[in-house]
Every structure is written in C-alpha cells, then in structure tokens.
Amino acid sequence: MDQLSAISANVTLDRMRTFVRVAERGSLSAVAREMAIGQSSVTRHIRELEEALGVALFSRTTRRVALTAEGERYYANAVQILRLVEQAGDEARDTGRASAGTVRVSCTAALGVRHISRLIFAFQDRHPDIAVDLGLTDERIDLVRDGVDIAIRLGPLTDSSLKRRALGSSRRVLVGAPACLERHGRPTTPADLAGFEGVRMSNIAGSDRLTLEGPDGGLHAASLGGRLRVDHGLAAREAYLAGRGIGPAHVWLVDDLLSDGRLEVLLPDHAPPAVPLNLLIVPERAGIARVRLLVEFLAEAVATIPGIERSSGDSR
For 232, which of 10, 201, 208, 280 is 20 to 30 Å away at the CA? Predict the structure, then answer.
C-alpha cells in the first residue's frame, strides 16, 4: 500500500467527525459525553488521525485542547467534507419522505416549555423518522460549538455568522394578580405604578425600569422596585400568580392565566414594547433535509402561539 492509500484508509469519517467536534467544543471529555463513548476512544481517534496525516492537529494543556495552524486549515476542509457527505446521503434517499436522523434545537426555556415542545411533538407526528434533541436554556450558547442545528431566540441578535429567519414579534403586557391589585388599587396611568411592588428579572439589564408604549406611540417610563428578582420566565409567572408583584410578561407566558382571571392586564392601553422572535440556523446545516423540514414547519407553526405576531421579515 502506498503512502496516499495508507492515509486514505486511516482518515475515516468517524475520526474526522470526532476531530470536528473536539475542535468545536475544545474538550475531549465533553465530546466523549456527547458521543456516548469513552474519552479514551476520543483520544485514540484524534491520535490515529494525526498519525495518518503526519501533523499535530491540536496543542494540549491540562484543561483544554486548541487547534494548531495545521488543525485550523484541516478543520475548515473537514466541515465542508462532512456536510457534503450528509447532504449526499439525504439526496440518495427517497425525496418524497423525510430524512431520518436527529435535529438539535435550542430554545429559551419558558417558551420551550410552554409552547415549542408541543410544536415539536406535532412535527414528529408528521415526520416519525426524525429525532429532535430539544435543549432549553436562557444562555446565548454557541450553536456550532455545542452541535446545535437551529435556535429559537427572543430579543436582539448578535450572531452575524448564522442564517436568520424572522418569525415575528412577541407581544407583551403588564400583569398582576387580583390580590395584588386589591392591595394597591388598579392603576389608570403609568404614574400610578409608583406604589407597586415589581417582580424583576435578574438576567435582563434594566429590569428595574419599565417602559410602556401608549396608544399614541409615545413611550412612558416608570421605576419598578420590589424585593423579588428571578432569572427564569416560569419563576416570574409563578410570582405574578402568587401576588408577589406586577411586571411585564410575554402573552404566551400567561395567556391561560389571563383567560381564567387569575391574572389581569394592567393599563391595557399601555404595553411594554414587543420583542423580536427569530430562528437561527447554522449555515452548514441549512441544506440538510431534516433541518430544512423543521425550519419550515416552525416558521409556520409559531403563528399558533398566543401573542406572536407574524412578520414578513427578511432572512439571511
């Protein structure tokens, strides 16, 4: 066997996939957990790949591994090769049915629990061969590093390298429990909010300052004090319900509590500004059939979520 044949025989797709994930995660142990194999197997894949290529792909410390210059060049090519292999497999299958495989989705936690999970169930009923790995977190994760295909995100975006699909905007209202309003009265103007306890979000900058948009489009600011701060939308929902204070809430978070009277909308002519809702897609994954199917399904299905106003927004 000549040298080129020996290299080709040892550079397997499994070893290449392992290398790509280690490059993206920067951790052998994290990739071992992700792939459900021993760390020794991950180490062996990398060692055998480096031996086949005759170069060091990583520099190693006691805590992390980092790509060498040669590793960076190899990573860029390996990602493209693996993408082409996956797409070729999709195209070889019957185009009239969904590709089998897994789509990894990340979503803000409260929205995922309240609504996105049921949309995923409906998608899988339609496409039973597609597995979905739904991760719920309010952290702005790195999609490529964490092996996520698509993410549903509320708020401004900073991921300029990702493809974006605008889903619309999430309408918000100012809410409080009847017991809370009986103690303080029902406000008729934004100025009346000064005497109310608020529930503030510790993971949102400026949550002690409430901005409301009036019927004429003008903005009104009010301070929002209070003894309780939470870092999760579902905890805020429970706090409002328990009468611990008032605060802004996405309609989809409290729609059931509003409909049965357990929460009330304060100042219905004034509302916190709506928040953009977007779908982010890793560009290298956008052409994979199962990813594309889920993206198109979610882009339509979000219209069923209470308070989501569809947008004809652009995508990139």
Answer: 280
What is the token pair recorded at 154?
């509320």
CB 21 within 8 A of CB 57: no
* Strands 275-281, 172-176: pairing kind: unpaired
Structure tokens at 271: 């509302």
pLDDT tens digits, 3-28: 444 444 567 888 999 999 999 888 88
User: Does residue 135 sit in helix, strand or coil?
Assistant: strand
Burial of 211 (0-12, 13-18, 19+ CB in 10 A): middle
Q: Which tokens is 150 given?
A: 């698509």
Tell me which residue of 246, 295, 297 sits closest to 272, measured CA to CA. 246
Residue 74 has a CB neighbour count (10 Å cut-off) of: 22
Pick the closest to residue 302 from 128, 172, 114 (CA basis): 114
Written as one letter, the residue type at 301 is: A
Of the candidates 162, 165, 167, 164, the one whose C-alpha atom is nearest the C-alpha of residue 144 is 162
Note the pLDDT tens digit of each residue in 71-87: 999 998 888 888 788 77
Per DSSP bridges, beta strands 130-136 and 101-107 are parallel
Name the pTM for this structure. 0.75
> By the 8 A CB rule, do 138 and 242 touch?
no
Tell me the H-state helices in 195-280. 233-241, 251-259
- Which residues is 65 bridged to in the sheet? 60
Are residues 276 and 166 in contact, defined by beta-carbon separation less than 8 angstroms? yes
Q: Return the structure tokens found at 188.
A: 């008729």
